[in-house]
Amino acid sequence: MSQTIHSPRLAQSDARLAQLIQEVSFPDYANTYDVFEDVVSCILDMRIHYAGSRAAFRYKRLKEHLSPGTPIDPELFLVRGPHIRQVLKLSYQKYDSLLAWSRHWLESDLGSLNWLLMSAEDVSELLLPVKGIGEWSVQMILLFTLEHPDIFPIGDYQLRKAMVSWYGLDESSDLDEQMRSISQKWSPEQSLATRYLLRWRETTGGAIIASL
Q1: From CA 139, how far away is CA 155, in angstroms rounded?
Q2: Domain end position, chosen among 145, 160, 189
Q3: Residue 206 reports pLDDT greater than 90
Q4: pTM over 0.85
Q5: pLDDT of 1 higher than 90
Q6: Statement to judge: residues 42 and 136 lie in one domain
Q7: Is 212 among the domain residues?
């Protein structure tokens, strides 16, 4: 049984989701609130490090390699970049993206900004120009790092698989439309619903097929 969720309204809006909520623990996590570090995680693994233990393995390897207390910041990659690339066995594409992100962070003085007060549009405008940072990465930052309440990352692979399994959706027939039709019931708390579905996928592998 799960903890009591923070919003009973969400469960009331979707009876099928309410069943899932009873099966998994509350999807809490220790937030870094660190936009730079969490974007690094997205670049390294195409998974943000808040995901399950089998995901974000390059990020975890980086953390294990660094001395305790060593920050994951632009200087780490701009100064020690070749060494880090070798340790993590990074492709040149990922390495170039890390350097581009590090330079952008410093040149635009992004560390001085209050990211928690920004709109989703403002966050997108600051992140998307960087090579290797796409819409999915932005949505992960909004969903996890900045905790925006109404984010639905429709392109996320794990979320798509979770919804196909739990709701019995047909992957061959406009899956995006089916997912949006369900997620509209969750607004303005799509983020919490998304995190529950991701937690279910993480803990069960999505092996349980919905019986509707």
Answers
A1: 10
A2: 145
A3: no
A4: yes
A5: no
A6: yes
A7: no
Residue 2 lies in a domain: no
Range of the domain at 128: 35-145
C-alpha span between 199 and 20 (Å, rounded):
10
Q: Please check whether residue 88 is in contact with residue 118, taking contact to mean a CB–CB distance below 8 angstroms.
A: no
- Residue 177 forms part of a structural domain: yes
Question: Buried b / exposed e across 101-127, counting CB within 10 Å, b at 16+?
Answer: bbebbeeeebeeeebeebeeeebbebb
Q: Return the sign of the alpha-carbon dihedral for residues 121, 125, 127, 131.
A: positive
Asked whether the CA dihedral 138, 116, 55, 126 is positive or negative, the reply is positive
User: Both 97 and 141 in a single domain?
Assistant: yes
Helix %, strand %, coil % of the chain (to 5): 60, 0, 40
Q: Is the dihedral of CA 110, 111, 112, 114 positive or negative?
A: positive
Distance of alpha carbon 30 from alpha carbon 40, whole angstroms: 17
